[in-house]
Structure formats: C-alpha cells, structure tokens
Write a structure and sequence with these properties.
about 130 residues, Signal recognition particle alu RNA binding heterodimer, srp9/1, alpha/beta, four-stranded mixed sheet
Length: about 130
C-alpha cells in the first residue's frame, strides 16, 4: 500500500476572509495565503496550525459544499498551555461549549465553535502519556 504523506483538513466557510482573520486572531494560527478571483472575490484561504495547513474553502451549493448546518465533527489541536489558550479565546469572544477539564483519556481540553459554527477542541496532553516528538 502507498505511504500516506500528509493530511490537509478542509473547512467550508461563507466568508473565507473573516474566517481566516478569526482563526489567526482568536486561535493563534499563522496566517496563510488568501486567493482571490479576478473580480476580487476570496475563493481560497489557508492557515497554519503548527506543521498542519488547514484549507478554507468557500461555500458552494454547486460543489456540494454548504455551511447551512452545524457539524458534530471538528478538529482537535494540541497546544502547550490549554488554560492560557482558553483564556485568550474566551477574551476574544469565542462561543464556548466546554471549559477546560481533565479527561480520563489523558488530556486537558476545552471545546468552542468558530464564527460559522465549526467545532474546535484545544488540548494539552497530561502526564499520562507523551506524544512522540
């Protein structure tokens, strides 16, 4: 079987530019590219979460990509200090679903939704296990 080289999460947004700015400002991701069509409409964006690139795709009913309903799926992002990350996100006005709590599966995590309803969990592994470097 061929080796898997990389996974790129893709999230669909109605307003890619606003989502890009939110993810950078609130979650601390690094700014990536913003691509525009010849008429200036934003058609693609990217942010960096550590070594992972996240693609921001525009909502398009024609392509079967619509953000009309909220999702039960989301992304888990490991950070070095989940409590400090939570305080920053909360101060920025993020919609909190669950405040930081230690989980029996070995991480302290919190859950939020972004400006278009995507679910995000931020976590710090506890001393129960360590991630490989």
């Amino acid at each position: 079987m061929p080796r898997i080289d990389r996974v790129i999460p893709l999230l669909v947004y109605r307003d890619i530019a606003a989502a890009h700015d939110f993810l950078v400002r609130v979650f601390g991701f690094e700014s990536g590219i913003i691509e525009r069509s010849p008429d200036g409409q934003v058609v693609h964006g990217e942010v960096q979460a550590g070594r992972t690139t996240i693609w921001l795709h525009r909502a398009s009913v024609a392509q079967g990509l619509d953000t009309g309903t909220s999702s039960d799926s989301g992304l888990v992002i490991h950070v070095d200090d989940v409590d400090a990350h939570f305080e920053h996100a909360r101060a920025a006005g993020v919609q909190v679903e669950k405040e930081p709590v230690d989980q029996p599966y070995g991480q302290r995590e919190y859950g939020v939704r972004d400006l278009e309803g995507h679910r995000w969990w931020f976590a710090t592994p506890l001393n129960v296990f360590k991630e490989p470097e």
